[in-house]
Automatic annotation (TrEMBL):
Domain Zona-pellucida-binding protein 1/2 N-terminal per the UniProt entry, residue ranges: 68-122
Domain Zona-pellucida-binding protein 1/2 C-terminal: 259-308
UniProt cross-references to InterPro entries, sorted A to Z: Sp38-bd, ZPBP1/2_C, ZPBP1/2_N
Principal location listed in the UniProt entry: cytoplasm
Keyword terms of this UniProt record: Cytoplasmic vesicle, Glycoprotein, Secreted
Any Pfam family matching the protein: EGF_Sp38_C
Taxonomic source organism: Bos indicus (Zebu)
Cell compartments where the protein resides: Cytoplasmic vesicle, Secretory vesicle, Acrosome; Secreted
Full protein name: Zona pellucida-binding protein 1 isoform X3
Gene designation per UniProt: ZPBP
Similarity comment text for this entry: Belongs to the zona pellucida-binding protein Sp38 family.
Length: 308
C-alpha cells in the first residue's frame, strides 16, 4: 500500500486483531493486497488509491523497517508499503494506516487514517464425481471387496501422471430385480477425481497445459475411455461373462465446484473476483464444502467453520 501526501509525513500501520484458525501456508494467498488497494470496511472490496500528489522520497518519513526480520510475517517498506510474508488465514482482517502530513510548511500537521480489509482466499475445490454399476458376486462375498480395491488401483494409476487422485466416496452392494433376469447382485460405486494441490506435492509443471482444470479434463477422458474399453472387451468375449463386470451405460459424471470450510463465493461483496473462494467474514461461516458463507450473527472471526 502506498499513501503519499504533500509535505512532511509520518506513517504507521496497525492491525485490528481477530482470532482465527491458521491454515497451511502453502494453501493460503491474498485475494487483495494492502499494498495498492483500499476501500472502507463497509464496501468489502478494494480499489486503487489516487496518486495525484506525491513527494520526492527524501521528503517523506516512514515509520517502520525496510527489512523483514527472521520469522516476521509483515514489514513496512521504505516507500510505505505493507508487505506480507507467509500469509496465513488468521492474518485476515482490518489493517489501519496512520498518516501525519503537512500540506505546506506553514500549515499545521494533519492526521489521516485509512482502513484496509485484507482477505485470504483459496482456489475452489474442483473435482469430477463419477458413479458406475457392476454386476457383482453375492453381496457378502469377499470377491467384491477384492474387486473394489483392484478397480481403485487401476483408476488411480490411470491419472497418476496427471497429478490427479481417485478417491472412493461410496460403495454399496444391492440385490436388484430385473424384468427378465430376476434378482441379481450389483455394486454401486461413487468416486471422485481431483487434482493434487501444492500441499500434497509439487506442481507437475508451470506450463499452461498443466492447469488444474486441464489436467482434470484429461483425467476424465482417460476414465471414460477405460469404461468404454470394458464394454468393447466384453462384446468380443466368446466365453460366458465373468461374475463381476461393468454394466454398459451406467457411468455417470458431474462437475463439482466447492469451497473449503471457512471460505465461500460472494459476487456482491467481491465483485472483482466472483469465482474466488474468499475467507468468510465475521458474521458468517461455512462448515463444509459448500459454495457460500452462511449468515451467523454469533461468529466474530474470519474463516469460521461453525456457527456457535
Amino acid at each position: 500500500m502506498e499513501a503519499s501526501a504533500p509535505g512532511r509525513a509520518r506513517r504507521g500501520w496497525r492491525r485490528a486483531r481477530a482470532a482465527g484458525s491458521p491454515l497451511s501456508r502453502a494453501a493460503v494467498v491474498l485475494v487483495v493486497s494492502a499494498l495498492v488497494l483500499w476501500a472502507p470496511p463497509s464496501v468489502g472490496y478494494l480499489d486503487r488509491l489516487p496518486r495525484s500528489a506525491q513527494l520526492p522520497q527524501d521528503s517523506v518519513k516512514i515509520v517502520g523497517s525496510p527489512n523483514i526480520p527472521e520469522n516476521s510475517t509483515a514489514q513496512i517498506t521504505s516507500t510505505g508499503s505493507l508487505v506480507f510474508q507467509n500469509f496465513e488465514e488468521s492474518m485476515s482482517g482490518v489493517y489501519t494506516c496512520f498518516l501525519e502530513y503537512k500540506p505546506t510548511v506553514e500549515e499545521v500537521i494533519k492526521n489521516l487514517q485509512l482502513k484496509y480489509v485484507v482477505y485470504a482466499y483459496r482456489e475452489p475445490h474442483y473435482y469430477y464425481q463419477f458413479t458406475a454399476r457392476y454386476h457383482a458376486a453375492p453381496c457378502n462375498s469377499i470377491y467384491n471387496i477384492s474387486f473394489e480395491k483392484k478397480l481403485l488401483q487401476i483408476l488411480s494409476k490411470l491419472v497418476l501422471d496427471l497429478s490427479c487422485e481417485v478417491s472412493l466416496l461410496k460403495s454399496e452392494c444391492h440385490r436388484v430385480k430385473m424384468q427378465r433376469a430376476g434378482l441379481q447382485n450389483e455394486l454401486f460405486f461413487t468416486f471422485s477425481v481431483s487434482s493434487l494441490d501444492t500441499e500434497k506435492g509439487p506442481k507437475p509443471c508451470a506450463d499452461h497445459s498443466c492447469e488444474s482444470s486441464k489436467r482434470l479434463s484429461k483425467a476424465k477422458n482417460l476414465i471414460e475411455r477405460f469404461f468404454n474399453q470394458q464394454v468393447e472387451v466384453l462384446g468380443r468375449r466368446a466365453e460366458p461373462l465373468p461374475e463381476i463386470y461393468y454394466i454398459e451405460g451406467t457411468l455417470q459424471m458431474v462437475w463439482i465446484n466447492r469451497c473449503f470450510p471457512g471460505y465461500g463465493m460472494n459476487i456482491l461483496k467481491h465483485p472483482r473476483c466472483p469465482e474466488c473462494c474468499v475467507i468468510c467474514s465475521p458474521g458468517s461461516y461455512n462448515s463444509r464444502d459448500g459454495i457460500h458463507c452462511l449468515q451467523c450473527n454469533s461468529s466474530l472471526v474470519f474463516g469460521a467453520k461453525a456457527c456457535l
